Each structure stands twice: as C-alpha cells, then as structure tokens.
Amino acid sequence: xxxxxxxxxxxxxxxxxxxxxxxxxxxxxxxxxxxxxxxxxxxxxxxxxxxxxxxxxxxxxxxxxxxxxxxxxxxxxxxxxxxxxxxxxxxxxxxxxxxxxxxxxxxxxxxxxxxxxxxxxxxxxxxxxxxxxxxxxxxxxxxxxxxxxxxxxxxxxxxxxxxxxxxxxxxxxxxxxxxxxxxxxxxxxxxxxxxxxxxxxxxxxxxxxxxxxxxxxxxxxxxxxxxxxxx
Length: 231
Ligand SMILES: [Zn+2]
Description:
Elements: H1 10-23, H2 27-49, H3 55-65, H4 68-78, H5 83-97, E1 101-102, H6 103-111, H7 124-129, E2 143-145, E3 150-153, H8 158-169, E4 183-192, E5 199-205, E6 211-216
Antiparallel strand pairs: 1-3, 2-3, 4-5, 5-6
Helix pairs in contact: 2-3, 4-8, 5-6
The structure holds zinc ion.
Zinc ion (ZN) binds next to loops.
C-alpha cells in the first residue's frame, strides 16, 4: 500500500465530503476508482491512437475500456444501499423465482416499497439505463435487454456476478445469513437494540448451537458465539 496526499481548495473538498456521505462511500474507494478510470482511459486512448493490433495491446483495451462494472462489483456487493446493488439483487431474486425476467418485472419489484423495501429505488428507469452501457458517467454495463424486453446479464460480467452472488442475494440482516464466526441469523427480535436506530437480532452458533438474541443489526457480520467453551 502507498499513501498519497493531495491539496485541493476548501470548497471543492467540502462538496466532495458531502457527495461521499450521500453515496456512503469512503475517500479511499472513490479516489482509487478515479485513478483506475484515469489509467484505463489513458491506456485505451493511447492504444487506439496507435491502432495497435497485436493481441497484447488489444487485451489492455478489452479489459479496461469495457467491463467498467467488473471493477466496481466488489464495492456494489458490499454497499447494500447503493442503486446498482439493489438492481442486481432484485434481478437475482426474480431470476430465482422465474425462468425469464422482463424489464417490467424488474421495474415493478424496484418500485414496490412496501413489499420489497430492500430493493426499492425511486428512480428505477434512469438508473437501469445507466447499467446497460459503459461510459465515463454510467454505472457500467451489467444488463442487456432484448427485443422482447427480456433482461439478461451481459455475458462479460456474468462470471463476476457469480463470484459475488452470495453478497447480493443474502444480506447480513436476512434470515439464514451466516457470518465468518459461524453464527446464523435467525431473524429480527423486534426489540430495539443498543446502537442508533438498530434492532436486536437472534443468532445461533452453528458449532455449539448456543443462541443469543442481543446482536445489533450493524454487528451481525462480526458477532461471536456467547458460549465461553465453544471452540
Ligand atoms: Zn458456539
């Protein structure tokens, strides 16, 4: 790891901090993404201006100029409140329940705040459009839409989605989620937790069976077994 420091004007920095809060992203994530974007744009511009045709260089263009979503997938998988996360999650939910997923099915699910709050997006259509092509300002291409309005995953991005599938399908607050300490989420207790705006969840150790019902929603991913003899 290398640490860099930069100078910027105060107003710009304040706006940057506000934007970070809105997106619930960290400075490191955003700046690393910008650096990657900058490098890839430079490489693809240079490559195209020299019309390089040997396979090595067309690989560079192929990996960086397209498949923008591949570089963001690890963040989208973690950030359950981000729009791309919700759209991918909604698509995977529908795909599990149906042979085909149409645009209307996806739009309906993402507009249904009362039955599907986890994937609710007030501005579905413009965001979905942002996930159909790669450009500097789009989210990055994930989906394809055919003439019959059937939505499918872009074949170049499919292996990447497959890799992160679990994180999209099962959130820490979902019943059945198992954390790294082998504690399984048995659901929300409905009792208010001790963290700001949190509820307590019931979790069961998959090694010794001990149950605890005092896990704050925000701590589910790291909760440990309460049994001191459990190894
Ligand atoms: Zn245990």
